[in-house]
Amino acid sequence: MQQTKYKKTPQLKFLAVVAVATSVVLIFTVTPWNILPTLVTEEVSVIAVTDYGCVGESSLGRSVVVSDCDASVGDTVSATFYIPAGETNGYLEELERRQNPMVDAWDRSVSGTGFSP
């Protein structure tokens, strides 16, 4: 009579494969969306002075509040703030360009409504 030997499933290998697969899925689903915030430090021009500090406008078009600021309107101060990574690395612009390939710079600059003849 022949004895049958049962092998145990390699649990450690299975867990490693699941961990790698989960990592790959997370990388390809979270990273392209660029929703993770990025810390940015830049020089901003002060547009208002309030009780909370100076309000400045960054080169990215964001309003930033700088606390403990003694500058006046028009001065330049250093500000550190968080911004979504998609706005700083050009991902959103590339996405817009790919979704609307027929819209060029002239089309974006036209404002108002009207009828064509």
- At CATH level 3, the topology of one domain is OB fold (Dihydrolipoamide Acetyltransferase, E2P)
Structural class: alpha+beta
- Determine the N-to-C terminus distance: 95 Å
Number of helices: 4
Order of helices and strands: HEEEEHHH
Task: Give an overview of the whole structure.
With 117 residues, this protein is α+β, with helices and mostly antiparallel strands. It has a domain at 35-101: OB fold (Dihydrolipoamide Acetyltransferase, E2P) (Beta Barrel). Helix content is 32%, strand content 27%. The protein has 4 helices and 4 strands. It has helices spanning 11-30, 85-88, 91-99, 105-109; strands at 37-50, 53-57, 63-66, 76-84. The protein has a 4-stranded antiparallel sheet with strand order 3-2-1-4. The longest helix is centred in the first third of the chain and has 20 residues, at 11-30. The chain is elongated and about 90 Å long.
